[in-house]
Amino acid sequence: MSVVGHDIAAACQAVQQGKVIAYPTEAVFGLGCDPANLEAVQRILTLKQRPAHKGLILITADLQQLEPWLLPLAPALLEQVLPTWPGSVTWLLPVRPEVSPLIRGEHDTLAVRVTAHPVCRELCQGLGHPLISTSANLNGQEPARSVTEILQQFDQQLGFVLDAPLGGQLQPTQIRDGRTGQIIRPS
Protein backbone atom coordinates (compact mmCIF):
# COMPACT_ATOMS: atom_id res chain seq x y z
CA MET A 1 0.00 0.00 0.00
CA SER A 2 1.22 3.52 -0.79
CA VAL A 3 2.31 5.60 2.20
CA VAL A 4 -0.28 8.29 2.99
CA GLY A 5 0.48 11.23 5.26
CA HIS A 6 0.43 14.97 5.91
CA ASP A 7 4.21 15.44 6.09
CA ILE A 8 5.57 17.66 3.30
CA ALA A 9 9.16 16.75 4.25
CA ALA A 10 8.34 13.05 3.72
CA ALA A 11 6.84 13.88 0.31
CA CYS A 12 10.01 15.81 -0.62
CA GLN A 13 12.15 12.89 0.55
CA ALA A 14 10.16 10.50 -1.66
CA VAL A 15 10.73 12.78 -4.67
CA GLN A 16 14.45 13.02 -3.89
CA GLN A 17 14.57 9.20 -3.80
CA GLY A 18 13.18 9.09 -7.35
CA LYS A 19 9.66 8.10 -6.39
CA VAL A 20 6.35 9.32 -7.80
CA ILE A 21 4.08 11.13 -5.35
CA ALA A 22 0.47 12.28 -5.36
CA TYR A 23 -0.39 15.68 -3.91
CA PRO A 24 -3.22 18.24 -3.95
CA THR A 25 -3.26 21.04 -6.52
CA GLU A 26 -5.65 23.88 -7.22
CA ALA A 27 -8.48 21.62 -8.46
CA VAL A 28 -7.45 17.94 -8.47
CA PHE A 29 -4.76 15.67 -7.08
CA GLY A 30 -1.60 15.56 -9.15
CA LEU A 31 1.14 13.04 -9.75
CA GLY A 32 4.62 14.44 -9.46
CA CYS A 33 8.32 13.69 -9.46
CA ASP A 34 11.66 15.36 -9.96
CA PRO A 35 11.71 16.53 -13.61
CA ALA A 36 15.48 15.93 -13.72
CA ASN A 37 14.89 12.23 -12.96
CA LEU A 38 13.78 10.89 -16.34
CA GLU A 39 13.19 7.38 -14.97
CA ALA A 40 10.62 8.86 -12.57
CA VAL A 41 9.09 10.94 -15.39
CA GLN A 42 8.75 7.79 -17.50
CA ARG A 43 7.16 6.02 -14.52
CA ILE A 44 4.46 8.75 -14.36
CA LEU A 45 3.75 8.40 -18.08
CA THR A 46 3.51 4.62 -17.69
CA LEU A 47 1.29 4.85 -14.58
CA LYS A 48 -1.10 7.23 -16.31
CA GLN A 49 -0.86 5.43 -19.66
CA ARG A 50 -0.23 8.93 -21.07
CA PRO A 51 1.46 9.38 -24.45
CA ALA A 52 4.80 11.19 -24.07
CA HIS A 53 4.15 13.43 -27.10
CA LYS A 54 1.58 15.45 -25.09
CA GLY A 55 4.12 16.82 -22.62
CA LEU A 56 3.76 17.51 -18.91
CA ILE A 57 3.47 20.56 -16.65
CA LEU A 58 6.11 21.84 -14.25
CA ILE A 59 4.94 23.68 -11.16
CA THR A 60 7.24 25.81 -9.08
CA ALA A 61 7.42 28.17 -6.14
CA ASP A 62 9.06 30.99 -8.10
CA LEU A 63 10.23 32.02 -11.55
CA GLN A 64 13.91 31.45 -10.71
CA GLN A 65 13.30 27.69 -10.33
CA LEU A 66 12.23 27.63 -14.00
CA GLU A 67 15.39 29.24 -15.41
CA PRO A 68 17.17 25.91 -16.13
CA TRP A 69 14.13 24.74 -18.11
CA LEU A 70 13.16 27.80 -20.15
CA LEU A 71 14.87 29.97 -22.72
CA PRO A 72 15.34 33.57 -21.53
CA LEU A 73 11.96 35.29 -21.61
CA ALA A 74 11.51 38.56 -23.50
CA PRO A 75 10.37 41.56 -21.42
CA ALA A 76 7.03 41.71 -23.28
CA LEU A 77 6.36 38.05 -22.46
CA LEU A 78 7.25 38.60 -18.81
CA GLU A 79 4.82 41.55 -18.68
CA GLN A 80 2.07 39.18 -19.79
CA VAL A 81 2.97 36.25 -17.51
CA LEU A 82 4.11 37.78 -14.22
CA PRO A 83 0.77 39.38 -13.22
CA THR A 84 -0.82 35.89 -13.25
CA TRP A 85 1.78 34.35 -10.89
CA PRO A 86 1.69 33.01 -8.31
CA GLY A 87 -1.67 31.79 -9.46
CA SER A 88 -3.65 29.21 -11.34
CA VAL A 89 -2.59 30.03 -14.90
CA THR A 90 -0.27 27.61 -16.67
CA TRP A 91 1.73 29.16 -19.51
CA LEU A 92 3.32 27.52 -22.54
CA LEU A 93 6.75 29.19 -22.68
CA PRO A 94 9.85 28.66 -24.87
CA VAL A 95 11.70 25.59 -23.62
CA ARG A 96 15.44 24.97 -23.69
CA PRO A 97 16.16 22.47 -26.49
CA GLU A 98 17.99 20.10 -24.12
CA VAL A 99 14.83 19.49 -22.05
CA SER A 100 13.72 15.90 -22.60
CA PRO A 101 10.78 15.16 -24.91
CA LEU A 102 9.41 13.09 -22.00
CA ILE A 103 8.68 16.44 -20.33
CA ARG A 104 8.05 18.86 -23.21
CA GLY A 105 6.45 16.34 -25.53
CA GLU A 106 6.78 17.21 -29.19
CA HIS A 107 6.62 20.94 -28.45
CA ASP A 108 9.09 23.82 -28.49
CA THR A 109 7.35 25.16 -25.39
CA LEU A 110 7.01 23.89 -21.83
CA ALA A 111 3.86 24.14 -19.72
CA VAL A 112 4.82 25.89 -16.46
CA ARG A 113 3.06 27.45 -13.49
CA VAL A 114 4.22 29.36 -10.44
CA THR A 115 1.56 27.94 -8.20
CA ALA A 116 -0.31 29.76 -5.46
CA HIS A 117 -1.44 26.51 -3.81
CA PRO A 118 0.31 26.57 -0.40
CA VAL A 119 1.09 22.84 -0.31
CA CYS A 120 2.53 22.86 -3.84
CA ARG A 121 4.59 25.96 -3.05
CA GLU A 122 5.95 24.33 0.10
CA LEU A 123 6.81 21.16 -1.84
CA CYS A 124 8.74 23.12 -4.48
CA GLN A 125 10.46 25.26 -1.83
CA GLY A 126 11.44 22.13 0.10
CA LEU A 127 12.80 20.51 -3.05
CA GLY A 128 14.52 23.64 -4.32
CA HIS A 129 13.32 22.89 -7.86
CA PRO A 130 10.14 22.45 -9.92
CA LEU A 131 7.91 19.42 -9.68
CA ILE A 132 6.19 17.52 -12.49
CA SER A 133 2.45 18.11 -12.18
CA THR A 134 -0.04 16.01 -14.07
CA SER A 135 -3.51 15.02 -12.96
CA ALA A 136 -3.72 11.84 -10.89
CA ASN A 137 -5.75 9.62 -13.19
CA LEU A 138 -5.40 7.07 -15.92
CA ASN A 139 -5.39 8.72 -19.35
CA GLY A 140 -8.96 9.55 -20.33
CA GLN A 141 -10.40 9.04 -16.82
CA GLU A 142 -11.65 11.70 -14.41
CA PRO A 143 -8.88 13.20 -12.24
CA ALA A 144 -8.74 12.08 -8.61
CA ARG A 145 -10.20 14.55 -6.12
CA SER A 146 -9.54 12.51 -2.97
CA VAL A 147 -6.94 10.22 -1.44
CA THR A 148 -9.44 7.35 -1.72
CA GLU A 149 -9.68 7.86 -5.51
CA ILE A 150 -5.88 7.99 -5.81
CA LEU A 151 -5.49 4.74 -3.92
CA GLN A 152 -8.19 3.05 -6.03
CA GLN A 153 -6.22 3.83 -9.20
CA PHE A 154 -2.59 3.79 -8.06
CA ASP A 155 -2.27 1.90 -4.77
CA GLN A 156 1.18 0.37 -4.23
CA GLN A 157 2.60 2.35 -7.16
CA LEU A 158 3.30 5.65 -5.42
CA GLY A 159 6.12 6.57 -3.08
CA PHE A 160 3.94 8.92 -1.03
CA VAL A 161 0.42 10.36 -1.08
CA LEU A 162 0.27 13.81 0.50
CA ASP A 163 -3.09 14.07 2.23
CA ALA A 164 -3.96 17.78 2.23
CA PRO A 165 -6.84 19.92 0.92
CA LEU A 166 -7.37 20.78 -2.73
CA GLY A 167 -7.26 24.44 -3.69
CA GLY A 168 -10.99 24.81 -4.23
CA GLN A 169 -11.10 25.32 -8.00
CA LEU A 170 -13.71 23.27 -9.81
CA GLN A 171 -11.74 22.94 -13.05
CA PRO A 172 -8.03 22.31 -13.73
CA THR A 173 -5.89 25.40 -14.26
CA GLN A 174 -6.16 27.51 -17.36
CA ILE A 175 -3.43 26.96 -19.96
CA ARG A 176 -2.34 29.90 -22.14
CA ASP A 177 0.11 30.16 -25.02
CA GLY A 178 2.80 32.67 -24.12
CA ARG A 179 3.47 33.60 -27.73
CA THR A 180 -0.13 34.39 -28.63
CA GLY A 181 -1.93 34.80 -25.30
CA GLN A 182 -4.50 32.31 -26.64
CA ILE A 183 -6.34 30.22 -24.05
CA ILE A 184 -5.58 26.55 -24.81
CA ARG A 185 -7.56 25.14 -21.87
CA PRO A 186 -10.12 27.29 -20.07
CA SER A 187 -10.39 27.11 -16.30
UniProtKB/TrEMBL annotation:
Lineage: Bacteria, Pseudomonadati, Pseudomonadota, Gammaproteobacteria, Thiotrichales
Enzyme Commission number(s): 2.7.7.87
Highest taxon of source: Bacteria
Family membership noted in the UniProt record: Belongs to the SUA5 family. TsaC subfamily.
Catalytic reactions on record: L-threonine + hydrogencarbonate + ATP = L-threonylcarbamoyladenylate + diphosphate + H2O
This protein's name: Threonylcarbamoyl-AMP synthase
InterPro entries: DHBP_synth_RibB-like_a/b_dom (IPR017945), Sua5-like_dom (IPR006070), TC-AMP_synthase (IPR023535), TC-AMP_synthase_SUA5 (IPR050156)
rRNA-binding among keywords: no
UniProt-listed NCBIfam families: L-threonylcarbamoyladenylate synthase (TIGR00057)
Subcellular location: Cytoplasm
Keywords: ATP-binding, Cytoplasm, Nucleotide-binding, Nucleotidyltransferase, Transferase, tRNA processing
Annotated organism of origin: Candidatus Thiothrix anitrata
The encoding gene: tsaC
The keyword Nucleotide-binding is assigned to this record: yes
One Pfam family in the UniProt entry: Sua5_yciO_yrdC
Record's function text: Required for the formation of a threonylcarbamoyl group on adenosine at position 37 (t(6)A37) in tRNAs that read codons beginning with adenine. Catalyzes the conversion of L-threonine, HCO(3)(-)/CO(2) and ATP to give threonylcarbamoyl-AMP (TC-AMP) as the acyladenylate intermediate, with the release of diphosphate.
PANTHER family associated with the record: SUA5, THREONYLCARBAMOYL-AMP SYNTHASE
Enzyme class: transferase
UniProt domain YrdC-like: residue ranges: 5-187
